Amino acid sequence: MRLFYGQAQCSQCHRGKFQTDHAFHAIAMPQIGPGKGDGVQGWDDFGRERVTGQSFDRYRFRTPSLRNVVLTGPWGHDGAYNHLEAVVQHHLEPAKALQDYDTGQAVLPSRSDLDALDFVAYRDPEHRAALSRSSEITRIRLSDRKLRALMAFLYALTDPSSLDLRKDVPERVPSGLSVFD
């Protein structure tokens, strides 16, 4: 826990009861998928700027909660990372992780009309440079031992009872709508 709140600097954004500040941050997360129609080509996703209209908010996305984080993959606002440790390593050195990103780790549904757009934004060097410049995180150095300890802490934030929630499905809801459709 000391590592999380200290050297790893996780608590800069992931803090409080839900392990999130609910704020928006830019961390040079690889952009995959068809985008949101932003930018000249239309395949970009400007993040929070889409709401505020402020260029300062470009590529900022809301900090997710870390409660049950092991169960919430894929990780990143667009699901760029399919492995929790990979997204943690991204946070340790965003610019390098962005440049070295392996598109093979993305699990995307296939759609014939969108497949060609899956990695257009990521493959554009100017786009990657803009993402990298926007990152609020610089390099954080952790030994392999400390990375393993950090991963163990993240796994400890997962409630084992969350693995099977079928017993928590109510028989009825106040709206009267069917629960089992």
TrEMBL record:
Name listed for the protein in its UniProt record: Cytochrome c domain-containing protein
Taxonomy, superkingdom: Bacteria
Organism placement in taxonomy: Bacteria, Pseudomonadati, Nitrospinota/Tectimicrobiota group, Candidatus Tectimicrobiota, Candidatus Entotheonellia
Species name: Candidatus Entotheonella gemina
GO terms assigned for molecular function: cytochrome-c peroxidase activity; electron transfer activity; heme binding
InterPro entries: Cyt_c-like_dom_sf (IPR036909), Cytochrome_c_Peroxidase/MauG (IPR051395)
